[in-house]
């Protein structure tokens, strides 16, 4: 990748981040929204540690009523940036949904830059281009796969799962029965859903 392309990519990332900061309205409460039937929603988040070049990743898959079908807390090593961490989290979410045999998914994260790259039809030539390409390839395994942006406040369960990995010795996948503090956050999200 040439230097000009790399600089353009980073400028786009900075522009997207700054527009999010400027356009955020503190009076608007952002909440998780349920997928429509027959979709499931895959939320992902990553926490990047610069000093260790590692990230913790949280993934949660929920149904249209907001109930957790699967959740995971994992760690990745040799991570180059926070953008790479978010792209790796996307891949973890896609793999988990694929392993469970879901065919229609909404994949939602709080990195506008990564989501924009995933939604783009063009090839990504940035430093995370290979990860974006891998995620797009995995998305073709589903009948329908939509990538959506959600502010962090609406992505609290995945964020908490990423943080929760710090307290674990090993990576973990839960089948419905998640740690109580994670379930409390999911219950809070369900409280705000419209009745079916």
Automatic annotation (TrEMBL):
Alphabetized InterPro entries for the sequence: RNase_H-like_dom_plant (IPR044730), RNase_H-like_EbsB-rel (IPR052929), RNaseH-like_sf (IPR012337), RNaseH_domain (IPR002156), RNaseH_sf (IPR036397)
GO terms of molecular function: nucleic acid binding; RNA-DNA hybrid ribonuclease activity
CDD domains per UniProt: RNase_H_like (cd06222)
Pfam families given in the database record: RVT_3
RNase H type-1 domain: residues covered: 43-163
SUPFAM superfamilies: Ribonuclease H-like
PANTHER family xref list: BNAC02G40300D PROTEIN (PTHR47074), RNASE H TYPE-1 DOMAIN-CONTAINING PROTEIN (PTHR47074:SF61)
Protein name: RNase H type-1 domain-containing protein
Species in which this protein is naturally found: Hibiscus trionum (Flower of an hour)
